[in-house]
Amino acid sequence: MSIAQLYCDRADAENGFDELKNQWGCGGYTTRDLARCRISARAVGLIYNWLSWYTRLAFPEMRKEAITSRPLLLSAIDQSTKHAGQTHLYLIPMHAAQKKIERGIENICNGLKTIQQTAERLLGANPWELLVSYIVAQITQKPWVPPGAFPAFVGP
Question: What mean pLDDT do residues 109-114 have?
Fold first, then answer.
């Protein structure tokens, strides 16, 4: 491994801490109530993790920081319609990178559809565990085999 690659990996690992401090407001708390500090820090950490996994589902090829991914994924007008017991959500991206957003939303839809179909076939499967393993497979570009699946399982 080259020195340049090691330096990039180190910088990428530090980006998460920098992002939590600067974009998520976790630079420090000013209360002496330790319980309240812990609850706030855990809530921010949990939401940060969820958004990170969601962003990687949309764009598995690279990690995106919140300062660039939030406007990208949140700049759409939506309309929801209900018919025959189903709800459909229509998104109209209002960002200059519309094609990139459409590809990300398509990745999210495909991932969630795959998890839903797989969870229905695997009795007792944890959907969150399936989703995280699916996202990791997308990031590493390896074939996805659901945890707890039979060896002969063929994905959708």
Answer: 89
